[in-house]
Amino acid sequence: MMRWLQSLGPESRSLNEIHSQFLEMMVDGRHVFDAAANALLGGTAPEVIRDDLFATDRRINRTEQAIRREIVVHGSIYGAATFPALLVMMSLVKDAERIGDYAKNLYGLAAARPPLGGDAERKAMIDLKDRVSKLIVRAHGLFESQNDSDARAFLEEVHQIEGECDAQVDLGLHARKDNASARVLAHRYFKRVTSHTGNIVSSLVVPLDKLDYFDEPRPKGS
Fold first, then answer.
1. Can you tell me the mean pLDDT for 43-65?
2. pLDDT at residue 86 above 90?
3. What gap in Å lies between CA 14 and CA 70, rounded to an integer?
4. Is 217 contained in some domain?
5. Which DSSP helix (H) or strand (E) runs through 184?
6. What is residue 222's predicted lDDT score, i.e. its pLDDT?
7. Cα(173)–Cα(136) distance, integer angstroms
8. CATH number of 103's domain
9. Which of 125, 213, 217, 219 is the most exposed place for a label (fewest CB within 10 A)?
């Protein structure tokens, strides 16, 4: 999506700045996700990380707003030549911002200190949390390098994790022996963080009109 920037003239400089700011949003998104998920599953006291988590989320929001302003200014100066990249970035900053929102949802769940099941359930959720965290890091690297071949393999892993989360939500909704509501919510939040991360990487391999739709249910055999 951004590879052609190097072939542009002066207009590429501000686009590269937008690109750099977006990567900062992803770093902050990974930070708040890790903080919230560790408060839920890793034993970190929610009150210890609260101020840092919400301050980082506010920084994510400020960066999103700054990028939007720069997109408007850039488009008014340089016109149609850079509109495709600007439209893509407008969509992607919302995905990055939503990672912070779901981190706050995880934090709220952690603050309630709900039952999360036995040792097996907790271990499975910790493993899932670690995988999602690593996805965000890998997405940052892929977006920075614009490696579309690795992006396709990445998106397959995203689909796999989404399917696993859906399966756990279904199990929790039909659980009869214990209160699985917290596990259902946690898996739902993990899935949404995964999906928004996948949307970001999908910009490397899908056209503009398909952004936000790569995670729609796919026909069997596709």
1. 95
2. no
3. 8
4. no
5. helix 181-202
6. 37
7. 28
8. 1.20.58.220
9. 219
Whether residue 7 is predicted with pLDDT greater than 60 in this model: the reply is no
Q: Which residue has the tokens 């990028």?
A: 67
The structure tokens listed for 132 are 């999602």
Task: Note whether 37 and 133 are within 8 A (CB).
Answer: yes
Residue 53: domain span: 12-210
Identify the residue whose tokens are 């959720």.
Answer: 125
Model confidence pLDDT, tens digit, residues 133-190:
999 999 999 988 877 889 999 999 999 999 999 999 999 998 877 889 999 999 999 9
Tokens 């997109």: give the residue: 71
Count other C-beta atoms under 10 Å from residue 9's C-beta: 8
Provide the number of structural domains found in the chain.
1
DSSP 86-137: HHHHHHHHHHHHHHHHHHHHHHHHHHH-----SHHHHHHHHHHHHHHHHHHH
**3 assigned to some structural domain:** no
- Nearest Cα neighbor of 133 from 18, 13, 16, 41 is 41
